[in-house]
Write the structure tokens for this entry.
Amino acid sequence: MNNAEIIAKSKAFLMNTYARAPMALVRGQGARVWDADGKEYLDFLGGIAVNVLGHCHPRVVEAISQQAKQLIHCSNLYHIEPQVKLAEILVRHSFADKVFFCNSGAEANEGAIKLARKWAKSARGPESYEIVTTLRSFHGRTLATLAATGQTKYHEGFEPLPPGFVYVPFNDLEAVEAAVGPQTAGVMVEPVQGEGGVHPADPEYLRGLRRICDQQGLALIFDEVQTGMGRCGTLFAYQAYRVEPDVMTLAKGLGGGVAIGAILTTDRFAQTFGPGSHGSTFGGNPLVTAAAVATLTTILEERLHQNAQRVGEYLRMRLEGIRHNNPVVREVRGRGLMLALELTVPCKDAVESCRQAGLLVNCTEGNVLRLLPPLNIDVQLIDEALAILERVLAETAAQVAVQ
């Protein structure tokens, strides 16, 4: 089928929950993808931070192929060899002692909320259940993670949301301190807000959250669904800040393209969950954990988190040059290869112009262009993408000037 045929069937049979671009991707290799009409694109969105090794990386493809021939699923009623391998790698390269596997970032965050609540009821008292989260945060689309998300636009139409969440401004320690009370169980925060506009946390802020949680006996949860897996220049973003959480959630890039989520925590918190207290039918099955082992070992062996830092610095420098020369670019933000341009105008048209010119990026918060290329991207492909982006933004500035 061509683009038009696929789009027609999509409209006929799928719920209209996405504002999809008028194209259907059918093939990918590295940082490039092709649509059903054969048009080629540079993919600087990567499935929204999922394809950390690019598309169809040979080690991931081989791992999936070999595991599919051996055992795809068996449930968590039994021990699973690739799941154990993945958990061991994650523990050895993080603060954590134990891991729980699930299927998505929302599911990981939901589990982290449950863990914090159950832990706090024994550690602080039966009245402790509230989680402090931040404005502009995004933690998922289940009812609980939607309630944890500090953006009212995602809440509309789903009220009443589950109680137990208090929102405070991001990077504001005084607001957190004021929000903590006898009912508080923990604090959940993204080291870099993704869907909220790519806003990095101040180092002093995360250090302050650690201090508050230690003093008050609260669980500190880092949502690293988007920032983890080398995206921000270290394997996990908390490592760059040198602040360890009690609980960390992962998803997106963990599987290199397959659906997987994870909760990482210390023994102190892990013992809160016993048999029957939490679970997931598909979570951490043989197929997805084999893919994740291949993804994670590739990142570590090839030091792709360091490449993200190095190439990310080059990309940021080039973006700052665009900002300096273009009045519609207000600010450059982010860490590693999680970068964004905040514009003075809505960026929907710029995203579409980039797509037509062969570059895939996306828009968040209405006026923030987000760039999430694979961790193994090179400078040549950065230059190729920026040639398109710079031209599109110059056209945008020219249009604004004549209005």
Q: What stands out?
A: The chain has two domains: 3-56+303-401, 58-301. The chain has a mean pLDDT of 97. Residues 379-401 form the longest helix (23 residues). The chain is about 40% helix and 20% strand.
